[in-house]
Structures are given as structure tokens and as C-alpha cells.
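Dear U.,

For the methods section draft, I wanted the exact inputs and outputs in one place so we can describe them consistently. I've listed the two proteins in the order they'll appear in the manuscript figures. Please don't edit the C-alpha cell lines directly; just add comments below if something needs changing.

First protein:
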Amino acid sequence: MFVNRERELNLLEQCYASSRAELFVLYGRRRVGKTELLRAFCRGKRHIFYVSDLGTEASSLAEFTRQISGFVFGQAEALSPFASWDAAFAFLATQAATERLVVIIDEFTYLIDANNAIPSILQRLWDTQLQQTRLMLVLCGSYVGLMEQHVLAYRAPLYGRRTGQWQLHPLTFWNAALLLPNYSFEDLVRAYAVLGGIPAYIQQFDAQQSLLTNITENILTQGRFLHDEPRFLLLQELRDPSRYFSVLQAIAGGRTRLNEIAQGAGIPTSSISFYLNTLQEMGLIERAVPATESQPHKSRQGIYRILDHYFRFWFRFIFPNRSLLQRGEVEQVCAQIEAELEQFVGLAFESICREFVWKEYREGRLGFTPQTVGSWWRRNEEIDVVAIGDDAILLGECKWTSKPVGDNLLADLERKAHSVLSQGHWHTVYYAHFSRSGFTPSVIARKDSDEALLLVTPDLILDKSQV
């Protein structure tokens, strides 16, 4: 099931409809849906869809030739392998001389691995031949850091040639929910905490089965697609992944500061930044700072989080228990997951609530324009949701508990708010409470007389009419 992606498809269609040559760059982490998006875009269009693979430049050229030959002559072996990329693209230039032709090069970073001069070769070909044609060339890659370095960066050979680019992100909670239509709000949040918004992962779950049954059958069981997925992806992208495994396990276990991660992973503090930077370039982790920091890159309050929900789940529950799972002790690991799942889900619920603030703004219901939406912490104090505008601020708490939020929690947020409000001057202050289990009658009564108090329930979050 292909959901959402309307903005991305619209942008691709706009490029396709232009009268000039187009060089479009699409990138994002693996399994996020780039290939499916491009296949949906190519339907009904003259196109060549080439997926690069690990291998020599000669083997890549040979496969590229077969794809071109199949498109032009209907037979993959009709053309002899092109001797060079120059020859291959000179031939494509004739095919796109007067009629639009879409050429997709998927996994473009593999071509760079085989020959790091490929971006320079394409730059020369674009400048001398291709930009005078009706070609729409789409370069697609999964290693975010490499795509930015070799294609998008100011010093990259192709800088200034691209006519469009898009970083494809995982589905939002609301669009991911469309893939599990029979789940309750609570199980949708739990499933999102486990799988995130990666369509390929969500589609492994059976919407007719319970969450724990899906986890048992599709994650804990050896041989299933999701069981070793993070390990396979890291082995594919990294030459020596063992230390990266240790770093991710340390973060998943609750170590978030640089020194803590280095200690937990058994890596010298002087070296840990290299591994953290690489994982950031891959889009697997992020360095977060309090929302009020004016110079985030210089902040000493930075902590590291695993961005990918499934990686966080896998390194929290699967990787440490791999020996048990290899011995078939699935029930023991499942019992651990069941016992700890509610605590694990809390962080994902917070991320959903922060995205809900952006959603409310986009749909004209927030009341101000936020420049940033994040969280805030200092020592042992934390506020889950902080949205900052020029003249207004929203401070919010998220409670993934079975008890309704009462007056004591409202008072606690107002107490913590003083530390944030002392860092700026905002004319309007909103307080928001996000609760899985609703609110006590006294809190609801208070809302009736306080327009600056926002009470967000599951029904409000999962408003299907607003998806």
C-alpha cells in the first residue's frame, strides 16, 4: 500500500512537465520508500530504472547497458557494453533529444564507491551534452552523508547543476497509522515506537494480529525479514561495524552524553566523535539540544538519541538477547519486551506529540508560528514539548500512563516553566498536556476558563479527518 508522498510526487511531476533538462536528487535512509516513490512516479512514462550494486565499474556499466538496451530495443543483450559513461550518456542524449526520457540511477553511492570520479564525469557530461536534451536524470542514494558530500555540498562537482532535490523522511505517525487500520490508538503508538515510519517495516506486520504476536512472529523469530535487518544494513554500509554496534547499544540503553556513550561502548573519548558523526551522516542518530539554545552547535547540553525507532527497539531488546533468541528462547525475550514496553514507548509518544504541534500549525490551529519545536532539560528537570515563536511559546508535558492527568501535574509544569521563561521574553505562554488516559474533572473544568491551557487526548491526536 502506497500512502502519502503527495508533496514528493507533485515536485517530481513539476520537474517532469518542464521543457528543460532536469537533474533531480532524491536521498534518504534505506527502506524509507525511495524506490517505491520513484516507481510510482515512473508509471506511464518513458523511463529507464537502473539500480546500482556493489561491484566494479565495468560490471556497473554492463548492467547499465542492459537496462538501456532493454528500453530501446526490447532485448537486454542487443547492445554491446558501453566502454565508458561518456558513451552511455551520449547514447541516452540521442534518445532524449526531442522527447522526455526519465533515467533513474538508484543507489548512486555504489557507483561512487566503484569510481569516486563519477560525480565529476556526470558534471562534465551535463555541461557539454545533457542539459541541451529533454532528459530527466534522477540520482537516488541511501547514505545521506555521502549524497550530501558528493552531490549536494557546495564543493561537490554537481553543485549548481541539480534542478531539484528532496530528502525523503519516514512516514509521520498519522500516515503510518493508515497501514495498520485495525489497531487502537494505544497499539498504533506502540507499533510506531517499535517500527517507526518505515513503510517496509510496517508492512511486515499483520493488522489482524496483536502487537505482541507481530513482534514475536516478525521480529523475534529467526529468518524473518526484520529479525536481523539493522545488522544487515550496518554491515552493508560500514567496513568495520563492531564499534558502531557498541555505540548504538549504549545509546539504546540510556547513555546519551558523549562521555557516557564512550564508556558504555568501550571506546576512547578522543575517538567517539568519529563514530557518532558517521551514524549522524547515516541518519540513524541525532544530537539534540534544549530548544532554547541560541547556538545549538556550541551547546554543552547536547545529548544523542537514536532517530530510527526500529534501530532503537532492536538495540534495546534484540541485539543484547541474540544468544537467547538463537537458542529459541523467544518466550523469555517476549516477556521482557512486554514488561518494559510501556516505558520504552514513552519517548516515541513524546516525538508524536512534538510532531502534533507542527501538524496543528500547518493546519492553522496553533495560534502562532513556531521557529522550533523540541524539548528542554537542565540538570534533573525536563519539559517534553517546547515550541518557540517570536512572541509566543508553548510548553508541554506528555504522559503515557494509565492514570488521568491531575492538577498536580499542571502545577509541576508551571513550576518548571519558570526556568525556560527566564531565558526569553514571550507575550503569550501556552501550556499543553498530552495524555494517553485523559484528564481529571478538575483539570477539564480549569480548561473551560483558561484559553492558554491545551488538553490533548488520543481522540484529538488521531483525528482521521485531519490526516
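Second protein (the one for the lower panel):
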Amino acid sequence: MEVHETLLDLIGNTPLLRMNRLGAGIPAEMYGKLEMLNPGGSVKDRIGLRMLEAAEREGKLKPGGTIVEPTSGNTGVGLAIAASIKGYKCIFTMPDKMSQEKIALLRAYGADVVITPTMVPPESPESYYRVADRLTEEIPGAFQPNQYHNDRNPEAHYHSTGPEIWEQTDGRLTHVVISVGTGGTVTGTGRFLKEKNPDILIVGADPEGSIFSGGESRPYLVEGIGKESWPDTLDRDIVDRWITVGDRDSFVTARRITREEGLLAGGSSGTAMWAALEIGKETQPGDVMVVILPDSGKSYLSKVYNDSWMIEHGFLDRPGSRVRIGELLQDKRSHSSLPDLIAVASHEKVGRAIEILQSYGISQLPVARAERPEDVGEIVGSIHDRTLLEKVFRDRDAINRDVVEVMDPPLPVVQTGAGIEEMVADLSRGAEAIVVVDGARPAGVLTRVDLLEFLAHQPQMS
């Protein structure tokens, strides 16, 4: 009988798959390394086990202990699998931009998940890094592997991922493309391969908004890669070339991988593949390129593989859509004296929010961290006159509370380039208004009345 004792025995030794259709237009042979076939569905399984085993040897993690880790999801799954087998508790902190599938998956393993704001600097007490630090200090017997600063992270790839690729390509490898987050995969894998052949080109794929490839830090939507600061686990000298990839290219390419190769891939896989296709234009016949595909698309069905979400964020255009949200917003500006965006700061009192509603004759307001939000991530909720009335009627003291204590969830967000039917869809689900954004910048608010007035003057629209 050929059996394995635990699921941990199945980590690693992931296969290479020839990219027959995606790679058809480049001279090099192109292969994807299928890290989504690890037991937990991602490349992070490799580091989770190694970090825990090192902590056990060093006495940092003892029986019955608690693992606390800031994670975008995949490292948490790798740790949760190992913890369930070894008998540890888990608490993971995650920024709120991560998919609901990832959160649900971690909870399925019995982990506690603490959600923190995305739009705060790393040093903020609210950031998922600092919340994890605080929990580690407060909980007896807690241990934080800290994938961003733990040498076992790149070490895992030096001893597994790198050797696997070298053997699988019979040493013919000329290019390897890796989307970079903690830097552990590119550092460990690249270091091993460079020792075998210094001429191998190590390419780092970096999302727009990350600092690795030289840009300024700003929000982006692809998950699990990029950073706003340099982690200790990333050796900058290992990367020969950086390729910057936008959210749209990442997500559209991920969908191409799925539809052209039959391989359900996550957004960071799309990032790596887009960079590989760019580098591939420079390759020669006989070159061998390996693209590490970090995780599966199963955790992104509600986002990358949801047409409505993609259209909402301006990444897809729905065929046949004639009118764009931006046109509707422009029409409103042409006949309204109201400012494009009226918002109330979350620290203001409820009484101030009521004054704003009354002075402008409106029925809802976005709630933001500042009165003039410059990024959609700063919008944290909304105020509606009908729900506010109920709260103030039941509790007169509510008028002196901070807005953040009584606010409703944020209004739906729609890109200026999205079709007008996206607004209709949001309104049909109960929303009274939407926030219009141009990229990440809030551009205005549109209401049911705005839409009705526009439609009244568009008799030929279908």
C-alpha cells in the first residue's frame, strides 16, 4: 500500500504544466508551476510547516500554544493545516480587502479571524501587523511566525521549490517569473537557482501600488503580493528584473489562464503570467521559462470570476452597454449646484451629519475618515435619514455620538467606466445611492432620483 501518514507529507513536489495556448506566441518554452496543487491550495503551505517546525525545535511554540499571524489568507491556511494536525490554536489578522472565501476557509479550519482596515499605514495600531503583535503579547503561550521577517520562509523555497524546478527542467531553465509578496519565494528559489546557474534570469512581478518595482505605495486590489515596505525576507539582489502589473491586467490574465488552459488561477497567478508574457517577447528559441502560479482561483470566485465585480471596478465592459456611469455623473453636474461629493467625517457627531443632510436637502451621506476623501478606501460607511431617524428617536443621546457609532454599511461603489446597468443592479438590491469612483478616487454620488431624471431624458436608451 502506498499511503501517507498526514496531509503534511503531500506538501511540495508540485508539477509543471506546459502553457500551450498562452505561451504559443513567445519563442521560449513556457511552463507553469502549479502551487495551487499543494494541500492547502497555495505555495504558502511550504513555509507554514517549516516555520512551525523550527519554532517547536527552538522552544518558541509549545503544546497547546496559539499561533497568531498577519496574513492575506494563504499563509494562514498553510499554518492552519499544520496546526490542526499538531494541535495548536490559530488566530489570524487580515485586511478587509481580502475575499470572503479566504475568511470562510480559515474559519473552516477552526481559526479565529480578526479583520482590520486596509487603508491604514503598517505602523498604525489598527493595521493587521500591529493587531497581530498586540494579540501575541496579550495571549499566554502565543507565537507569531511572522512570515515577513522569518528566515525559514525563504529557506523553505531554497530547499524545496528551487530544487524541484531545477530537476523538473533538467537544468535547462533560463527564466523564472515569480509574483512577490513577502519575498520568500523569489529569494529562496532564486538563490538556489542562481547557485546552479548564475545566468538564470529571475523576474519579480509586482502589482501597481507596491514599492518593490519603484512605484509609490497606494491601494490596489490584487491580493497576497506587493508591499508598502520592504520585508526582511526579500533579498533585493536576487531579482534581476521587475515588471509592474496593474490590477486589470492581473485579473484579466488570470481569467485567460482559466479559459485558455483550463487551470483555475488566482489574481497573483495572473500577475506572474502577465509579467511572463512581457518577458517572453525577449526570449529566444530553446529558452525555458517557468512561471510560479501561487494559488487557485477558488478563493476569488466572488471577485475575479464575478463579472459584476469586474465591471464594477472597471476591469470588464459588458457587451452592449451604451451608457457609462461617468456620463450620468456629468449630466448631474450640468444641472445641479450641489458639490460632486458630499461626505461626513467618521469622527463628527451625529448632529453634524443631520445638519449636512438638511443644508443640502439630501437623504444619504458617505461616511469617510476625512470630510473630503481622496481614495475610495477612506469611505467606511454611510448615513441615511430614515435609519438615522429611527436611531435618534429611540435614543435621543445618539445625536451626540460619533457618526462611526451609528453609521450603516458603505454605499455601493461603481467605476465611472461601468455601464449604467450596474447602478440599476445596485439600486434593485436596496441601495438608495452609489459612490462613483474614477480608479480609486471618489468622483461623486448618484441617487435614484439622479438616475430617474437621466432616464427620463433618454427615450431611445435600451
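Candidate sentences for the figure legend, describing the second protein: The chain has 16 helices and 16 strands. The mean pLDDT is 90.

Thanks,
Y.
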